[in-house]
Amino acid sequence: MSIKIPVLYEDDNCLVFNKPSGLLVIPTDKNEEHTLVNLVNQQYGKGQIYPAHRLDRDTTGVILFAKSKEIQEKLMQFFKEKQVNKTYIAYVHGRVAEPRGKIRIPIKDFNQRKFAPHLPAQSALTHYEVEDYYKDLTVVKVMPITGRTNQIRIHFAKIGHPLVGEDKYAFRRDFALRFRRTALHARRLEWPKMDGKGTITVESPLAQDMVDFLEKQVK
Hints:
By secondary structure, the chain is an alpha+beta fold. Helices cover 20% and strands 29% of the residues.
């Protein structure tokens, strides 16, 4: 039996789901069947729906789908034009010294470094605010301004505070904390209404595994 993906919001144009961890959003060239796109389309059952953006396999939280290709194109344009405000919660190793800041470091994700090393790094900008400090980690609210692949993971690794559970852009053995995935949750998404009159905001409660993990941490 396929899992039911919780719906956070629905209107005539859009559906917003609360993505669980461990799911690719769309199939890769390996043609995986157990993906978020396949699951929500089976669940919706009223015609095809289309993702307006992506989240990493491990990342939980708010993800936006369109009810038509036309709406998908409009939403993707909103993302491209930076009209969509995205807020994440991340657990990062160590104590982030500055309570708020900007990370402006050009990046190449893992696949770009492996398969296209000749291409230049892409400009990337991430804003963050510290929400809380614990003995071995910092809870940060993260607002990526650009939308590069793995941007949050790469940026925090670059400043010496990789995400808890990170195993691609940092070495797990270098850190005491262990988590079964990268500790990243898409908490909030805000985008323009199709008629141009105001915005829509959808939030997702913090994933339960991240709640449980934090309860075990020492201040």
